[in-house]
Amino acid sequence: MIDIFTTGGTIDKVYFDASSQFEIGDSLLPELLSESNIHEGYRVHGVLRKDSLDMTDDDRDRIFDAVAGCEGQKILITHGTDTMAQTAERLSSLSDRTIVLFGAMQPARMRRTDAVFNLGFAWSAVQLLPPGVYITMNGEVFEAGAVRKNLEAKRFERI
What we know:
The protein has a single domain (2-158), classed as 3-Layer(aba) Sandwich (Rossmann fold). Helices cover 26% and strands 33% of the residues. It has helices at residues 29-35, 57-68, 84-91, 115-128, and strands at 2-8, 13-16, 21-24, 42-50, 74-78, 98-102, 132-137, 140-143, 147-150, 155-158. Strand 2 and strand 3 form a beta hairpin.
C-alpha cells in the first residue's frame, strides 16, 4: 500500500482567466492515477493546499506529523517545486521508510504538463528505492539534503 499526501503546489494549480492568476485547486491526483491505470494499492491524504512559496515551517511540521503518524512504509508527497527541497530535508529523519516528493513545473490541468510523467516516475521510484527521503523530478532521483531547484534552468540539480 502506498500512502499519498497532497500539499498543493503547481501540480494542482487552476488558472482563473478573469483574474489572470493561478490558485491552488482540488488535487487532480485521483484523476491522474486513474488516467495512469492505477486504481488500487494507495490511499490519498489531503494535508495542505498551498503554493510552496507560501509554506511556513509550521506547514512543514504539519506534513512531517502527517507522514510520521502514517503506518505505511512507502509514501508519495505532492509538493510545489520552489520549496520541495526544504520539506524533503525536514522529513529526512524519517529514514525508516521510503518517502518520495514530486510535483510539476506546469499545472496538471494544462495540456503541456510534466505532472503525469512525474507521477509515474515517482510511483515506480517509491517501490524501488531503499528507505530514505527523495525528490523525483523529470526522470531524476535526488536525495534529501543534496538537491536544489535551479530557477534559471527550471530544473532540479544535485548540490
